[in-house]
Amino acid sequence: MTALFALATSLLWGLADFGGGLLTRRLPALTVVVISQTIAAAVLGALVAATGGWSEAGPRLWFALAAGLAGPVAMIAFYKALALGPMGVVSPLATLSVAVPVGVGLLLGERPGLVQVAGIAVAVAGVVLAGGPQRGGAGVQRQTIVLTLIAALGFGAVFALIAEASTTVPGLFLALFVQRLTNVAAGGAALYVSVRRGAEALPGGRFPWASVPALAFVGLADVAANGTYAVAAQHGPVTVAAVLASLYPVVTALAARGVLRERLRAVQAAGAGLALVGTLLLATG
How much of the chain, in percent, has pLDDT values that exceed 90? Predict the structure, then answer.
C-alpha cells in the first residue's frame, strides 16, 4: 500500500507541475496560483468539515500559516521557471527541496551520513551541469536556474513546516486548508500590487473560463497528492514513501517529452539526472 500510494503521489505531483507550467505560458503565474489554490482551498474546506478537522485547531497551525506564506513564492518561481523551460531540467532541479529538511536536521544536531554527503555533492554537480555549457549553443537561461532553486528552497520550507503542523489525518487536512487560504491571501495581495504597477492579471481583461478545468486540475491534483502521500507515510516506512514520491519529476519530464517534444542536450540531461540521483541519496541517507 505504501508503494502504491507513494507512486500515485509522484504521478499527481508530476502532472500538476506539467499543467502549471503549461498554464503559465499563456496566463500570469500569479493568476495561475491564485485561481488554482482558491479551488484547492474550497475542496480542502469541505474535507475539513467532513472529517471534523476543526477539532485539531491549535498552536501548530502557525506552522501551516508560515508554510502558506512560503508556498506562493515557491510556486510562482517554479511556474515561471517551467514557463521558461525546459521542463526536463527545471522539474528535477526542484527536487533539491529535500535538502531543506536535511538542513533543519543539521541545525537540530543531526549529522549527515556518507550517503547524504554523497547526495549533496552529486546534486550540486547536477545544478552546474543542468545549466548547460554556453559553447556550441545556448544553455538554459541563468534566470531559469535561479528561479528553480528559489522554488526548491520554498518547497523544502513548506514540507518542513507542514510536517510540524499536524499529527493526524484530520489535522493534516486542516493544516493544508490553512496553508491554501494563506496562499490565496498572499498570492492575491501580490497580484493586486502587480496590477497596480501596470501588469495584466487576465489576458485581454477577460476571465480565462476555458482554462478553468486545467486550473482546477492543477490545484486538485496537488491536494490529492498531499493526501496520497499522507496515506503512504502512515502505512509504511516514511523513507520508502518519500523516495517513491520524489520521483514525480520523471512524470513531468516524460509529459514534456511526449506532449511538447522537448529535446535536451546530453550535458543538460546528465545534469538533471544527477540532481535527481542526489535528491534520492539525500532522501534515503
Answer: 15
pLDDT interval class at 284 (50, 70, 90) = low
Per-residue confidence band for 74, with pLDDT thresholds at 50, 70 and 90? confident
DSSP single-letter state for residue 168: S
Is residue 86 reached through a cis peptide bond, with omega within 30 degrees of 0 on the bond before it?
yes
DSSP per-residue codes, 106-142: HHTT----HHHHHHHHHHHHHHHHHT--STTS----H
Phi then psi for residue 188, to 5 deg, are -65, -40
Which residues, 6+ apart, have CB-to-CB distance to 49 below 8 Å?
Answer: none
H-assigned helices in the chain: 2-23, 29-51, 61-84, 87-94, 99-107, 114-130, 142-165, 169-196, 212-234, 238-245, 248-260, 266-284
Q: CA of 57: how far to CAs of 170, 176, 234, in Å?
A: 10, 12, 21
Cell output for 153: 528552497
pLDDT recorded at residue 6: 80
Residue where the block lists cell 513546516 = 161
Q: Which residue matches cell numbers 491534483? A: 221
For residue 131, give every residue at least 6 positions away whose Cβ sits within 8 Å of its Cβ, in sequence order, or none. 139, 140, 142, 145, 268, 271
pLDDT, tens digit, for every residue of 82-133?
788 777 778 777 777 777 766 776 777 767 677 767 877 787 677 667 655 5
Between CA 247 and CA 258 the distance in angstroms is: 17
CA distances from 169 to 7, 76, 113, 176, 226 (A): 19, 28, 31, 10, 11
Task: Give yes or no for a contact between 122 and 277, defined as CB atoms under 8 angstroms apart.
Answer: yes
